[in-house]
Amino acid sequence: MNKTLELERDREDLDKYSRKLRYIFFEDRFLNLEIVERGLANSYMTSDLKYERNFINAEAQARLLGVGIWTKSSDYCSNCIELKKLNPINETFILINKCDFNCNLSGWFVKDAGRNALYLSIIFSNSEKLFQSKKNTWNNDGDEFFLFDNSGKLVFYYKY
User: Pick from 141, 46, 147: which is nearest to 88 by CA?
Assistant: First the structure.
């Protein structure tokens, strides 16, 4: 049972890790796009690409439907925690707990549009807490900030 995949190259051949960048088509299906449509990935670094608008629209639809990584958290602290400030230059952010009870954020994590993640800890009631990444997590000229609970459900999303 031989099957054929079609690979299509865009403007870049390799990413910064020397991985080949390709669009994958199989039996009239655009697999890269399906992954984003199902919320299994975000549309990362799409500017000036052939299918840029397709990926942006697919992500917007997945976010609207709350599928995959866009599934909203139902944790009782998810309505308490807010991003007060993100400073990509010094790699810090401030979260606020606006509720009258402590929120144990063990297992909760924030990440950028790529693969960088930082795990969190407790935030006391009606207080704020400064967190700092020990590596270059956020791009200074634009990136995304995801906050996920300990079940991997989305609490907060911010794009700048």
Answer: 141
Strand-pair partners of 8: 23
- Which positions ≥6 away from 41 have C-beta within 8 Å? 35, 68, 69
> Into how many domains does the chain fold?
2
Domain boundary residue, one of 69, 98, 123? 69
Q: What confidence category does residue 140 fall into, taking pLDDT thresholds of 50, 70 and 90? A: confident
CA–CA separation, 16 vs 113, rounded Å? 15
Same domain, 144 and 76: yes
| More confident of the two residues 113 and 37 | 37
Its pTM stands at 0.84
pLDDT in tens, 41-59: 998 766 788 999 999 999 9
The domain that holds 116 is classified in CATH as 2.60.40.1260
Residue 54: CB atoms within 10 A of its CB come to 18
**Would you say 44 and 35 are in contact if contact means Cβ atoms under 8 Å apart?**
no
Half-sphere exposure of 158 (CA within 13 A, CB side): 16
Neighbours of 95 (CB within 10 A): 25
